[in-house]
Design goal:
The complex is a heterodimer of chains A (341) and B (573). Chain A has 341 residues and is of the alpha/beta class. In chain A, 32% of the residues lie in helices and 20% in strands. Chain B contains 23 helices and 17 strands. Chain B folds into two domains: 13-327; 353-562. The chains are: A alpha/beta (341), B alpha/beta (573).
């Protein structure tokens, strides 16, 4: 096949795929029933946060406070049939719009169809942050500049997407040792991370970088790293109606949105999602998720955790580093300020 | 049409010196958006003792303009110029400046200096300090004015071609046409004639001219002709006054009193609350751009500075670092927002490291002895096929790098570069044809690698293995093939590593040179490891040869006294 055709064919293929994902999202909108729709209150230029969750009542208070302090104006949440009071908690928040669904998480491409629909319906023209309740965004200067400063700068630089890979955080000692209580900063417990253990490859089809590694890869997937969870994410996007997330927030279509890295040696700006999965709540969660079998690749990840958790795992090792702030992450080369001094 | 307008007479230096030695400042303020902010800034200027003439872009809604007028109604020293629609990069900005300056001079003929600011410029120091500064330098024009043919002033844009090409298309709305028309003119060698008396100069559009110079520019007899020419110059607000001031000035200080820095894409840098101390220290009079929500800055400034002379060294350094980070990045870093293509890495690795090829086989006790005699982390075979051999037999290496061969092989380059980047000491590791060979080209083309090679050392473990000869022969064939491939890289013209090479026969004859090179000393400490026992090697190699496998790059075991350097051209085996 001639070279020009390869590129052209990929364009056609990806376009069809994007339209398929959007079509799915639009069709599945009926699965969502509104509990509290406050989207009328969203002003122009508001920064929106999209979340899909199930049984996260313990984590929610700190999560909401964290992102409110950063400057998120409105949360759009899909509650997948929680039974632990998450719904009541969210319903009572003045800046949360809540939908609920009993539909299958797996059947909606792990919640992505729901989020794509909400993004399609409410996200256009806004900076949209799509995260899980255990992910905390850290970006350069986040201690002194609100999220709006970042999005204004991205706007003025004509960037449409901002990358933030996941950094798995874990406690010193056993995961179950300290009990996490609602409202507590999870980073007080899960304060440690792997500084340099990341494998990067380029995904030619979608153009994104595919990052694996960290404690999950070395502890649970050392012999089978191909199947270790992906860590690359693009959670912050200035949304347009024709965009769609493809696989979690790992990659998007159109393909150009995934080109958030520089290939000529320079550094572009990037952030981190501190991933605080490994708290005391994790054991119960992984048991539940394994029996539900609603997660990616036959819940392979959760099966691996489950078998490892039987003997009180230690993710911590002497080479682990305690989190201090974004400057530390930049020094380690996990994030970069790019040309945003 | 311009010549018809009344222009105030030029106050002579003698007049000024006699009745009012203090400078009287007028401000030309150009506003395009965010009038609330501009209103606050205008008030600061007016209350500081300057006369302010404001030009509001005609594209701003009338309601916003009316509100601004209303709010500033109590300021006697504020006036508004007729509004024009402004488009970036065109003459409309110069025309607006001209109009506003004329209105300003007509309203307050006693002015001595005129400063241009935008509605988003923040005065960092009290206006009184600026007036004092200007009073001490009465005849100086503070306008950055750089000869366009001598110096590349613009970042990532046109320089002299701004004056010689035509730009009928909008840069913002018709970018494609703009670029293509510029290229076409270059190809056809088309150019405009620069009028007599115009020597193209470029510089920041934020200047502070003496009224004498400004009036001379505005009332120049040739002005209509110049305006006609500049109407088709690209971004004339960065060249009109900068060029014409050279004709009339009594003395130019080619620098701007406004702190305004551009990034690699020609976009002005934005300042935030956390830059407060740096801005205060700089002693600059005016700064742009300020993030509109940087409340801390708007509250903190203007405030008196400790220094008289502006000195923006700290800010320049901060911004230069940012430009460098964006353009070349940190060497040896591979991450989510920096993933350089091959050969665009700007440093494949972050620091120097040492690879010992075949030394562990040639000197059996080396790995135990070496860590006590070099300032480095001495690893075993990092790329061993069975797993990573980190120093001290650790299962997890520096930076939590996994000891799993599968994980390492997924991204071997990332493995090596992460290891080198995350450690503070020099990294040193063993390498041999038994290891994973994926990184050979990467390391061979990396100037940071110090490589010590003993060719043929792979045969030593085979000699003493006691395996059946058939298996030995098979293994030898594979290992020798791999070694020859590696040596091909070392002999290629692309080699960047620093390489020292010996062959096994040389080690048998004189075991000291490799160790001396490694420790960079001539007298080795006691207990240096002895070379491997090579008795029987000659017979072993003969047997391989007779089995059809010609041993190569081994050196001459039959005549060890001939062990010196291999001939350069001919194969030394």
């Amino acid at each position: 096949m001639p070279g020009w055709w390869t590129g052209y064919w990929r364009k056609i293929r990806l376009r069809a795929r994007r339209q398929y994902f959007l079509g799915r999202a639009i069709r599945r909108r009926r699965a969502l029933s509104p509990v509290a729709n406050r989207t009328r209150a969203i002003g122009s230029g508001a920064i929106l946060c999209f979340v899909t969750l199930r049984n996260e009542a313990v984590r929610l208070p700190y999560f909401l406070d964290y992102y409110r302090a950063l400057g998120v104006d409105h949360f759009l949440v899909v509650d997948n049939d929680s039974d632990d009071g998450s719904r009541a908690l969210l319903e009572a928040q003045p800046d949360v719009s809540l939908w609920t669904t009993k539909a299958s998480y797996k059947g909606s491409r792990y919640g992505l169809d729901w989020v794509n629909w909400l993004l399609f319906r409410h996200g256009t023209g806004h900076w949209c942050l799509t995260v899980d309740p255990d992910e905390f965004l850290v970006y350069p200067h986040c201690d002194v500049r609100p999220l709006r400063a970042l999005t204004d700068w991205l706007d003025s630089s004509a960037y449409r997407a901002f990358p933030a890979m996941m950094l798995d955080m874990y406690p010193r000692g056993s995961v179950t040792e300290r009990i996490y209580a609602a409202g507590e900063n999870p980073l007080d417990i899960a304060a440690w991370f792997d500084p340099a253990n990341y494998m990067i490859r380029k995904n030619r089809e979608y153009g994104n970088l595919w990052i694996q590694g960290g404690p999950r890869a070395r502890a649970f997937f050392a012999d089978d790293p191909q199947n270790a969870p992906a860590l690359n994410k693009i959670p912050l996007v200035r949304w347009a109606r024709h965009y769609a997330y493809v696989s979690s927030t790992h990659m998007l279509l159109p393909r150009s949105l995934n080109l958030v890295y520089d290939e000529n040696g320079g550094e572009r700006a990037s952030g981190i999602l501190l991933h605080t999965k490994f708290l005391s709540t994790f054991v119960g969660k992984s048991d539940e998720e394994m029996t539900r079998g609603q997660h990616y690749a036959g819940s392979r990840e959760y099966k691996a955790y489950h078998s490892a958790l039987q003997n009180q795992p230690q993710l911590w090792c002497p080479e682990s580093i305690e989190y201090e702030g974004w400057r530390q992450l930049e020094h380690l080369g996990l994030i970069s300020r790019g040309n945003w001094p | 049409m311009y010549a018809a307008r009344p222009v105030p007479s030029v106050p002579t230096t003698a007049d000024r010196a006699a009745d009012a030695p203090a400078a009287r400042l007028g401000v030309v303020m150009l506003c395009h958006e965010n009038l609330d902010l501009a209103t606050r800034m205008a008030r600061i200027w007016a209350e500081g003792g300057a006369t302010v003439a404001i030009h509001v872009d005609a594209k701003v809604p009338d309601a916003a303009f009316a509100a601004m007028r209303q709010t500033l109604a109590d300021c006697a020293r504020v006036l508004f110029a007729p509004r024009r629609a402004c488009e970036w990069g065109t003459f409309s900005l110069v025309a607006a400046t001209q109009d506003t300056a004329q209105a300003l001079l007509a309203a307050d003929p006693d002015l001595t200096h005129v400063l241009t600011v935008s509605g988003a410029c923040l005065p960092l120091r009290p206006v009184e300090e600026l007036i004092e500064f200007l009073s001490a330098r009465p005849d100086r024009d503070f306008i950055e004015s750089v000869n366009a043919s001598d110096v590349g002033w613009a970042i990532g844009g046109l320089d002299l071609e701004r004056f010689t090409l035509r730009f009928p298309f909008s840069f913002r709305r018709q970018r494609n046409l703009f670029d293509r028309y510029v290229n076409l003119q270059r190809r056809l060698n088309l150019s405009r004639r620069i009028p007599e008396g115009v020597i193209p100069h470029l510089g920041s559009q934020w200047w502070c001219l003496t009224v004498r110079t400004l009036t001379a520019i505005l009332s120049d007899r040739e002005r209509a002709r110049y305006d006609r020419y500049f109407r088709h110059v690209w971004i004339p607000d960065e060249s009109y006054f900068q060029t014409l001031a050279r004709r009339h000035t009594l003395g130019i200080e080619s620098r701007s009193l406004t702190l305004s820095k551009f990034d690699g894409q020609g976009k002005p840098y934005v300042f935030y609350d956390d830059h407060r101390d740096m801005l205060a220290q700089s002693g600059c009079f005016v700064a742009r751009k300020i993030w509109p929500r940087a409340q801390g800055l708007y509250e903190a400034f203007p405030r008196p500075a400790q220094t008289a002379e502006p000195d923006s060294y700290m800010i320049d350094r901060l911004i230069d670092q940012a430009v460098a980070r964006r353009k070349v990045g940190r060497p040896g870093l591979y991450m989510q927002s920096r993933f350089p293509r091959k050969d665009a890495e700007n440093g494949k690795t972050a620091a120097p490291y040492t690879v010992l090829y075949g030394l562990a086989e040639a000197y059996p006790g080396l790995t135990e002895w070496l860590p006590f005699h070099v300032d480095a982390d001495v690893h075993g075979h990092l790329f061993a096929e069975t797993g990573v051999e980190f120093s001290g037999g650790r299962r997890l290496g520096p930076g939590c790098l996994s000891g799993s061969a599968a994980m390492r092989n997924l991204d071997p380059q990332g493995f090596l570069t992460s290891l080198i980047r995350v450690t503070k000491r020099r990294q040193m590791f063993q390498f041999s044809p038994r290891d994973d060979q994926q990184l050979n080209w990467f390391m061979g083309t990396d100037p940071n690698m110090r490589l010590l090679v003993i060719t043929g050392a792979w045969a030593v473990p085979l000699l003493h293995s006691g395996m059946p000869f058939d298996d030995v022969r098979r293994a030898a064939a594979i290992l020798q093939r791999r070694e020859l491939d590696f040596l091909n890289i070392l002999d290629s013209v692309w080699l960047k590593a620093q390489v020292s090479r010996w062959n096994l026969a040389e080690i048998g004859a004189d075991p000291l040179p490799p160790l001396a090179t490694l420790l960079e000393t001539d007298d080795l400490p006691d207990g240096a490891p002895a070379p491997a026992d090579l008795t029987g090697m000659l017979a072993f190699l003969d047997r391989l040869r007779n089995a059809g496998l010609r041993p190569r790059k081994m050196g001459d075991f039959r005549h060890p006294e001939r062990s010196a350097r291999p001939p350069i051209i001919k194969d030394a085996s």
